[in-house]
Amino acid sequence: MDVALRAKGITARLALVLSTAAMALASGSAVPGEEEEEPPPEDEERVSSQALLILVTLLIAALLTSYYLQRWRIRVVHETVLSIFAGMVVGLVLRFSTGSYIKRMVTFDHTVFFNMLLPPIILNCGYNLQKTAVARNMTAVLLFAFVGTVISAVVIGVLVQVYSLTGIESIGFTLLDSLILGTILSATDPVTILAVFEQLRVDPKLFSIIFGETVFNDAVAIVLFATLSTLRASGQEFGLHALPAMAWSFMVVFGASLAVGVALGVVMALLCKHLRLYEYPSIEASLALLLPYQAYLFSNAVELSGIVSLLFCAATVRQYAYKSLSVRSQRATRYLFHLLSGLAENFVFIYLGISLFTSTESEFRPVFVVYVMVATCISRYAAIFPLSRGLNAVFKYRHPNAPSSAQPVTHEEQTMLFWAGLRGAVAVALASEVSGPRGALLRTTVLCVVVLSVGIFGGTTPQVVHLLGIRTGVAQPDSSDEDESDDDGTGVIDLRTGATQLPVSRDDTPTRLASPWSEPGLSWVSRIKSSFRSMDRSLINDFDRHYVRPLLTRQSRLPQRRVYSRRRSASNGSNHSGNLDQVAPAQSPWSSFDPDEVSYGNWASGTSDGGSPSRGRSQRPLLAREGAD
């Protein structure tokens, strides 16, 4: 009870402070309801500064609210919900106290979202992709992301078309308009759910399924929306005859976008391998940021899916280029991407809350909004529970003696997947691109559904997690500090030399598995089944370790760990004699490396500025003798 009252008090104080600040900033503006012309050039900077000041003030308040929620361990309400409602309060004040120009400055702009706010979020998701956990549940992830998204879009489209045919509120949607609305609302929002899961540290299996499903779901929804929008722009009506062309267009766009992302990720890996970028960590980290962003912009420029290219480019950079980066660049990229993603996520929710009341073109139909909200819940149910039961049935057929807890998706996880299907900023941004006589109604409806879903589902996620009895407080996979260990099987760090030692098996040659096509007496069906069974994760990992990584990754690195030197006597500076227990850790030269003072060639030869011997050369014979000992 005390926690709930404290949360309500925070919300009330935050709304009061923000509304007062917005009214003070808006003083002296146009009279409410009066049309205002654009300010002259000399006043445009002042007005834009006022608009940015409102947004930055709200962002600072959101960050401080997040601090107190985590400090006081308040689980009743999440920071994203407070950010949306704080934006709604300020947007309501701005609607009745300022002119039209400043309201346009703070209203949601889909170009700003797609070009500035969405890339950091997707970049952080791809760069920190839990590849091991997601790969283990890849069947469920791909099933929900691809088939589930299509089911959700079709169910919403059919239900909206039924509502349009009844004539209630005279919305006048065609079948293609209804399917476009269904495609828009099939894009789920991973921000709120994943943020709550990270704080609660839920079961890694559930976290990986929801993480993979939401990330790929946005990409699939955007490609489907682009396909239907192209069909609408050409003036064609939707029918069964258009399905093959739509399916082919979807596969081409998705495949080409994936190829662009992987190609630029490989380029980044080759640059890090063959160039001495580690001597200039700032340039190295900047390229790790800009190459994925270039993939995103290139795909959007040629009418592909930028989100798909960015996601796979970031994952490729993390898989192959990360090990070739210097320690400074590794830490900088991880923390920088996480920082930019967090700021963008908070800014997006503030943006949505303000836009609910500052949007100039709006057409509100309350009954239609409630109906679409219910249709969205029905579509989410149809996309989760039937697919989960089918997946569990296949698992039960293949493993009849397995317990129910070993199913791919348990009933509790199905319920949590249903609850995690709230809608977010991607849907609002897609709706902003819809034009036509019913464009205003569609945009207003989508915005209202997003705010309702975030407030209802996002605000109650912690309570649902506890009611379902889902495990919390569990360490997430791939969460270990990669500066201290290599947990991906590529090698271990020698603390004396700093070099990466690749794992050596009993046989240095790559593992070769017997091909089912060379075995006599097998039918074609048996050969195909055996081929698929042999393509397990171990085979893929062996191929990646023996062929792909040696091609794209530097096999030895600069010393990045502690280097051991014998203690020197304080009196005469002579070495102590003895065993390795007398060896003391000394700081690696790379830990204090400055590219302006020393180059890698000088460091390796043991000299720095002026040709003076460095610490590295004096230790070389010591390390050699220690290895001999």
Low-confidence stretches: 14-35, 479-517, 558-629
- List the strand order in the largest sheet: 1-2
Shape descriptor reads: globular
Instruction: List SSEs in N-to-C order.
Output: HHHHHHHHHHHHHHHHHHHEEHHEEHH
- By DSSP, the count of extended strands is 4
Give the fraction of residues assigned to helices.
55-70%
The helix count comes to: 23
Secondary structure class reads mainly alpha
Distance between the termini: 66 Å
Computed CA radius of gyration, to the nearest angstrom: 28 Å
Roughly what fraction of the amino acids lie in strands? Answer: under 5%
Largest sheet: 2 strands, antiparallel
Mean pLDDT: 76
Describe the secondary-structure layout.
Blueprint lengths: L1 H24 L15 H31 L7 H17 L4 H7 L3 H18 L3 H6 L1 H29 L8 H11 L5 H10 L3 H30 L9 H32 L6 H21 L4 H16 L5 H32 L7 H33 L12 H9 L5 H7 L7 H20 L2 H7 L24 E2 L6 E2 L22 H11 L2 H16 L10 E4 L16 E4 L13 H6 L9 H14 L1
Antiparallel strand pairs: 1-2, 3-4
Helix pairs in contact: 1-2, 1-3, 2-3, 2-4, 2-14, 3-14, 5-13, 5-14, 5-17, 7-8, 7-10, 7-15, 8-10, 10-11, 11-12, 11-13, 12-13, 12-14, 14-18, 15-16, 15-18, 17-18
